Amino acid sequence: MITITDKAAEKVREFLDSNPQEGDGGLRVGVRGGGCSGFQYVLAFDSKRDDDMAFNSHEITVLCDRQSFPYVTGSTIDYVDAMTGAGFKVENPNVVAACGCGSSFRVEDEEAVSAV
Known about the structure:
Elements: E1 3-4, H1 6-18, E2 26-33, E3 39-46, E4 52-57, E5 60-65, H2 69-72, E6 76-82, E7 85-91, E8 95-98, E9 105-107, H3 110-115
Parallel strand pairs: 1-6, 2-5
Antiparallel strand pairs: 2-3, 4-5, 6-7, 8-9
InterPro entries: ATAP, ATAP_core_dom, FeS_cluster_insertion_CS, HesB-like_dom_sf
Organism: Patulibacter medicamentivorans
Protein name: Putative iron binding protein from the HesB_IscA_SufA family
């Protein structure tokens, strides 16, 4: 399961209200190989695909492809507005290490890292 906070849901709704063409999908959460720690998050507004897992959190559809799901299961997506910038932040219980800037992460299973 992947959930989003109240603040993140509010920001997703704001985006969808201002971009109605995106309204038939949801917030896609995934990973791709890269960065100094192994993986980077991919967050985008997208339509549901055949092999996606879909979750409902705060009346927002959260989409995740099956390959990414083991790396983000149990995560919470938040929206942070700080002096250093604003944006979505992923709180992921599967992370064992992250780079200093926070843009990439590593999970415990090193074999899984090379598979993606």
